[in-house]
Each structure stands twice: as C-alpha cells, then as structure tokens.
Amino acid sequence: RSKRRGRGQITVYSREIAQEMKRATQLEQALRNAIIADEVDVHFQPIVNLKDDSVVGFEALARWCDADLGYVSPAVFVPLAEERGFIDTLSEALLRKAAEAALAWPKELFLSFNLSSAQLMDPSTSANVLSIIGRAGLDPRRLELEITETAVMTDEDVAQKIVTELRAAGVRISLDDFGTGQSSLGRLRDFSFDKVKVDRAFVSRISHDRSSEHIVKAIVAMCDGLDLEVVAEGIEDVSEALKLKALGCGMGQGYFYGKPVDAVATMRYLATKYATREPGSAAGG
Ligand code: C2E
Ligand code: MG
Ligand code: MG
Ligand code: MG
What are the residue boundaries of the EAL domain, all occurrences included (predicted)? Predict the structure, then answer.
C-alpha cells in the first residue's frame, strides 16, 4: 500500500518538476524575445547624501513586464538568464540603456549597476563593461558596480582580477547586501571595495530593535576606519532616516527618498532637485 502511495508521489513530483521546467523554458523564451524586442527596461532609484538629502547617484534596476506573464521580478529573471547562459546579453542591453540615460544627468551624479555572480566568474567582464560604457560615452569614473559577497566567493581570483581591471579604469566597486549571506570581515580587508551597502534587513528593523541599531553602528564605524563609504538600503520612513543620520551613515537609498522610476521620470525628479540650475551644468559638473 505504502509502495503504491510512494509511486503515486513520485508521479506527482515528477509532474511538478516537469511543469516547473516547462515554465522556466517559457520564461526563458519570453525573456530572450523581450531582449531582442528591446522590451526589458531599466529604472533608476536615487541614492542620497544623508547629511543634506542631496542626490548623489542612481542605482539601475532591471524591469520587465511581459504581455502574458505580467510583471516578472529581476530577482527571478536575472538568475534565470544566468542559469540559461545569456546573462551577458541581458546585462549588456541593460548597461547600455542605463549609461545612455545617465548621460542626461548632471555630471557629478554616478550610475550604480548590479553585476551578477556569473559575470564575476567571466574574465571578459571587465573589458565588456568598459567597452559598453565607452561606446555610450559614459566616463568610467561615473560608474559604480554592485557585487555581492556570494559572487566574490565563487572564484575569488577571477573576481579580484575583474575588479582590479575595472578600478584601474576608474570604476568604483560596492559590496551589495552587506550583512546577509556569508559575511566575512576579512574579505573587506583583502578585497578592493570602495563602498558598502548595508542590507535592508538591518535598516527595516533599526527603529524597532536595538541590536540592529548596534550592528549598523558597528558597520559604520568599521567602514570609517577602512575608508569605505556606507550606503543604507531600503530606508522607508523618516524615523529610519533620522536614526541612520544620527549613526553617522553617509548615504541612503529607499522608498522614503524615491522609488525606482523610468528614465523620463528620473529626469523629472532631477528637474525638481536642480530647479534653479541648468541640467548638465550643475555644481561641480
Ligand atoms: P538589490 O541590488 O539589492 O536592489 C535593491 C532592491 O530593493 C530593489 O529590488 C529595489 O527596488 C528594492 N528597494 C529599494 N528601496 C526599497 C525600500 O525602501 N523598501 C523595499 N521593500 N524595497 C526597496 P528589485 O528592483 O526588485 O531588484 C531585486 C534584485 O534583483 C536586486 O537587489 C539585484 O540583486 C537584482 N537586480 C536588479 N536589477 C538588476 C540588473 O540589472 N542586473 C543584475 N545582475 N541584477 C539586478
Ligand atoms: Mg544593488
Ligand atoms: Mg542591495
Ligand atoms: Mg538586495
């Protein structure tokens, strides 16, 4: 009896797995088509200086809304493109669009772009990135690349080489989602980062629990000592913003300051911020 039930379960599971694989393949095909049709878009979320709330740059975030599948999160389709081996094609389209949009911003603003873990294992990534922004006409000193610890860990030598080549060209490197995953403090010392992005998990609890506050305080102190800039991610309300300012955190990002919006809305946002100045000739630009 149990044997029969067991077999039944295997049938159910294999059907589920088959359906899941079919779904992933449909998603893959739709995504490949969307890239070709230029339907994968990029949105921008402001990163601000917490001292005066001035905008210092924008993070580019991939957006895809399929006619049949609806909105698909980048947390789903970026890993899919990695698994199916076309992250380079996707990322190239995204970086090209992001770099072109950034050209219209005041020159002192940086563009922050997420690199996926597969890209950090591919030694041609540094040359590819520099050639894409070169063709777009974006100064490498205006580009920041966000990478995660997990991505660095996979093949540390290749990742280090990519990062070294990019930094030599003036690109800055941020460590994304810091505090989640396999955080190693030694990596902060040995790997060349310019900036640390404190994960939203700490920020969202900072008003409610003292331990998150202490952790952020310690991260800020450590980064000060290591000469790394700190960005707090996912700031959603004024109390979080005030707490982070009080802790001496230099930069912030989150819905409180602005949700990710498309390139056109980003220009409108900048127009309100730079109301009295000419676009492209803002202070320091
Ligand atoms: P991430 O790089 O850590 O990006 C931050 C995520 O937090 C974004 O989600 C952003 O929309 C969201 N967020 C920002 N502020 C707030 C807030 O105040 N509250 C809340 N609840 N969320 C906030 P999103 O856009 O869904 O992206 C998810 C992840 O997908 C990103 O995490 C990044 O790892 C990846 N991703 C997005 N675009 C790209 C891309 O172009 N290339 C690569 N390789 N990965 C990307
Ligand atoms: Mg990021
Ligand atoms: Mg992040
Ligand atoms: Mg994240």
Answer: 24-274
